[in-house]
Amino acid sequence: MTTKPPTISEEARPVAPEKRLRADARRNRDKLLETARTAFAEHGVDTSLEDIARRAGVGIGTLYRHFPTREHLVEMVYRREVEALCAAADDLARQHAPDAALAEWMQRFVDYIAAKRGMASSLRILLTSNSELFADVSGMVALALRRLVDAAVADGSIRGDIESSDVLHALSGIYSAPDTPDWRDRSRRLVSLLMDGLRWGSPKAGANRKP
């Protein structure tokens, strides 16, 4: 009997499921994580926790009940970002042609990098104090990208002479780009150029060229 391979989202689940929360508590927690993600991307990890709680519409005590320290909040935001990015690969693959799914996922990668840049200083600290965090998420993004790239190669909509690891390396380069006001827009344009390069010379692109 053949065993069905796990989807990206299945492989992206946390190793230890979190304690079940009441519906209202879960909503507060999710709102805090989303608000913190936006705040970190906009202003960096030193954003006031009181401001995050206020923007999420809860009291600071509620924030601390869910996230006892700033580092814990950063860790949970980072885990959530990685898991959401990986789960999006499955969703996009079901909804779009392989090359379109890859192109949309690469644009979402820009948002992931924006959040990660905002948490950079705390993530460096966590890297030395919480190796489990990075062990849990290591390889998940690479796996998501590889599946999308492999599907587009098999479909003939991107070139077959590239490695997904090279694409990830190119995408990751936007992390170190200067932090200017137009960083996100420039990064999206660069990602579009990268996608154009992946399509150039592909079997489908060649078939669509006029003689």
UniProtKB/TrEMBL annotation:
<feature type="DNA-binding region" description="H-T-H motif">
    <location>
        <begin position="48"/>
        <end position="67"/>
    </location>
</feature>
<dbReference type="GO" id="GO:0000976">
    <property type="term" value="F:transcription cis-regulatory region binding"/>
</dbReference>
<keyword id="KW-0238">DNA-binding</keyword>
<keyword id="KW-0804">Transcription</keyword>
<dbReference type="InterPro" id="IPR050109">
    <property type="entry name" value="HTH-type_TetR-like_transc_reg"/>
</dbReference>
<feature type="domain" description="HTH tetR-type">
    <location>
        <begin position="26"/>
        <end position="85"/>
    </location>
</feature>
<dbReference type="Pfam" id="PF00440">
    <property type="entry name" value="TetR_N"/>
</dbReference>
<dbReference type="InterPro" id="IPR001647">
    <property type="entry name" value="HTH_TetR"/>
</dbReference>
<dbReference type="InterPro" id="IPR049445">
    <property type="entry name" value="TetR_SbtR-like_C"/>
</dbReference>
<protein>
    <submittedName>
        <fullName>TetR family transcriptional regulator</fullName>
    </submittedName>
</protein>
<dbReference type="InterPro" id="IPR009057">
    <property type="entry name" value="Homeodomain-like_sf"/>
</dbReference>
<dbReference type="InterPro" id="IPR036271">
    <property type="entry name" value="Tet_transcr_reg_TetR-rel_C_sf"/>
</dbReference>
<keyword id="KW-0805">Transcription regulation</keyword>
<dbReference type="Pfam" id="PF21597">
    <property type="entry name" value="TetR_C_43"/>
</dbReference>
<dbReference type="GO" id="GO:0003700">
    <property type="term" value="F:DNA-binding transcription factor activity"/>
</dbReference>
